[in-house]
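Hi support team,

I submitted a single chain yesterday and got back a structure, but I'm not sure I'm reading the token output correctly. Could someone confirm the output below corresponds to the sequence I sent? I've pasted both exactly as they appear in my results page.

Thanks,
R.
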Amino acid sequence: MSLAILCHIVTSCVSLIFVIEYYRRLLPLAANSPQLVVAAAIGVIPFALCSIVFAMRRFSFGYALGFYFYTLILGYIWLVEFSTFPYGHRAAAISAFLSGIAFIIPALFVTAPIRQRFALTAGQLHIILAAIVVVSIAILAIGATFQFRLAPPADMYKFRAEIDLPKWLQYAIGSVSGALLPFAYACFFQFRRYALAALCLLALVLFYPITLTKVSLLAPSWLVFLTLLSLYFECRMAVILSLLLPILSGVVIAALYRYGLASEQAFVYFGTVNFRMIAMPSSALDFYNDFFSTHQLTYFCQITLLKLVMPCPYKEQLSVYMADSYHLGYFNASLFATEGIASVGTKLAPISALVCGLIISLGNRASAGLPGRFILLSGGLLLQILINVPLTIALVTHGILVLFLLWHIAPRDMLGDPPAPSTLEPKR
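Hi R., thanks for writing in. Yes, this is the structure output for that exact sequence:
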């Protein structure tokens, strides 16, 4: 376990060296130099040492998300050494370090179960699963009447700006694709109902022509990848490998590409995974630190309900201001950037991260007693969503609260081990 974590840290840092080499024209980063690389390596050592906690703690949803956020913060601490933005880099790096620790502590250590006052019966669970499938199909049909474009992945960002879905439909799509369908997939896989599990994956990818997001496009392959890892490795190792293997593959491709041994088409993988999916969420902290070093803090007024009752200098979503200021398109950022830097500034960001960690720990407590694989699969898409989306938005828009509720009321005896086919029928 410790060796895998160490390999992940080293591989992530090497990946960032290649990111700086090939994408620094898009990001505000200085070129690689021996002095900066050594400074970055020294800078990440204290945070790297904190990774020992992942070798000590048991698996939970907070463990999985904590490891993804650990990678995000590690990436920022490396990249900040190369940042050309004029804000205070040292103070921001210390704030990121403390924010990461503040989140990880409750996310990994608060796991005591919440008393289950109500549990679904087998029949009730089957009804809910059937309802999820039916509702998902209905939402797909409604969404297709507003928007349906089979755009290639390279053009998704261009056409996404033209999408104008009603708010209620955005919430419905987010909850169905982020929480409900993965929950149903995990249940069907646990019950060995593989055809129904495949139907859930098909429904997930059908949201891509409606939303034009990479999460919906890659959701089926991501859940299958997590499933395979969870079959051959225990859940903690599966979480580590779910990042290590994709990043390592990108590093190998980048190294081959550097010496002319890989094609441009192969290098697209590095740009998609290592740059956009891994490095950009870390780099977002750099952009937010720069922007809010010269602009007013939001004090959480970016939350729609709070904006109705308190003055807010930002009438549009923060992604709009980021696009206008840095011309990198519309991009959201994780809770460390939004609930932290943007809302309360770098000094108070660790406190905000602590509160967010306590919220995530509710998922640990709600899912206590469920199999680790089931938790990983049903919450697997949220790992990708939360490194790019504020927690306050994801709680409602992407169905985190709904998933926590489903975890809490799920029948432990039914989901503990895959039952024989004769026991899968609802009780009459």
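A quick pointer for reading it: The two ends are 46 Å apart (CA to CA). Let us know if anything else looks off.

Best,
Support desk
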